[in-house]
Amino acid sequence: MIPLEIERKFLIRRTPALFAECTEKTEIEQIYLKKKTPDIQRRVRRMTTNGNAKYYYTEKRFLSAAVREENEREITPEEYEKLRIEADSALVPILKTRYILIYSSQRFEIDTYPFSSEYASMELELADESQEIILPPYAEIIKEVTGDKRYSNAALAKNNCFPEQCHE
Questions:
Q1: 84 has a pLDDT exceeding 70
Q2: C-alpha R_g of the chain
């Protein structure tokens, strides 16, 4: 059985108080690959924390706005370089910095992008869709964007902006 990823996503403001509480920082390069099957998204990632890089290959199939089947495995640097050749030229590689925030026994992932000093996205993986979320009081939530394709990594990278900033 393929594991499910259940996730809620929020648009937030980048504030010093929020980042002061974060426990980890990871630089991410994410590249979408050409689809072999129309309903399965493929990608590779290089995730670098404290100078140590790890590489991942992921396949996702979207079941609903918040739920996806996700099959992910760690790969070698050589496999990563080989798979990069299969990059989907219609999609821009994503560069982002991920911060981890632990609040009320929840693990929030905050992604910042080089194109915005004002906004970031904050995600939380859930055990099930009805799970209660306790948002950190120092996180300035603008709105929930779960399921809004304009806030997907691919759309943000392609547009090089958050939708709130694209028309400035």
A1: yes
A2: 16
Q: Residues near 120 by Cβ (< 8 Å), separated by ≥ 6?
A: 11, 12, 13, 14, 110, 111, 112, 113
Q: What is the pTM of this model?
A: 0.90
Average pLDDT of every residue of the chain:
92
Reported as a single tens digit per residue, the pLDDT across 38-82 is 889 999 999 999 999 999 999 999 888 778 899 999 999 999 999
Contact 18, 34 (CB under 8 A): no
Cα-flanking dihedrals φ and ψ of residue 30, to 5°?
-125, 130
Token digits for 20?
A: 């002061």
> How far is 144 from 146, CA to CA, in rounded Å?
6
Q: Interior CA angle at 61 toward 66 and 28, to 5°?
A: 80
